[in-house]
Amino acid sequence: MLEDPVKREEMITFFRRLVSPEMLANPLHAGYDTSIRTDDDELTKKVEIYSRGLAEQIRKMRVYCLSVLPESTLMWSRYSANHRGICLEFDKNNALIEKARPVKYRDTYPEWTPQGATNDPLALVLTKSKDWCYEREFRIMGSLQGGPAKLDGDFVPLPDGALTAIILGCESPDQTELMNIVNEHAPSLTIKRMARVPNHYKLAITI
Predict the structure, then answer these.
(1) 179 strand-pairing partners
(2) Are strands 62-67 and 137-142 parallel, antiparallel or unpaired?
(3) Rounded to whole angstroms, what are the CA distances from 33 to 15, 98, 110, 115, 117?
(4) Is residue 168 classed exposed, middle or buried when 0-12, 13-18 and 19+ CB atoms within 10 A define those classes?
(5) What is the tens place of the pLDDT at every residue in 41-83?
(6) Residue 13 — pLDDT band, cuts 50, 70, 90?
């Protein structure tokens, strides 16, 4: 970027958009533009300040990870205490789950610049190594902004009807405790169980 005058001017234009009209009207601001246009250290410092602020905003978000593959043996092994945990099933036709964004799988880190044509900073947290592509992951990004994914403390409230079932792992212990919780808080919720398919390295959902 430092060697490319076009990209440098794009960065200056981007930083000007972050400044209030009153500050832009200040005669001293033209000198500031000149300093980051001609001084590599000043431009680098400005980018670092912006990057730290952006990183702080991302750290305030909360990420919820989902998959479209409830029968994945690898994920049951990795994320549910080796088939002893549970999986939550959601209805995708609600305002919150519709906000889930697909993860992209790459060989290299994503490249991102604030002045670029695609300047979505969340691309940085929606990218993983191709080694994880079997997960077919989606992510909901909870933030303090408005909308269905607005945080309430550290959590995003689920809309009514969003949770449709709980799926028990095929090695889950006695389900009495779970049934008591469901009967108390969501008696209409369906409980399912994963089962090993005979003679196959495969799982299937049973009711």
Answers:
(1) none
(2) antiparallel
(3) 9, 42, 29, 16, 22
(4) buried
(5) 888 888 888 888 888 888 889 999 999 999 999 999 999 999 9
(6) confident
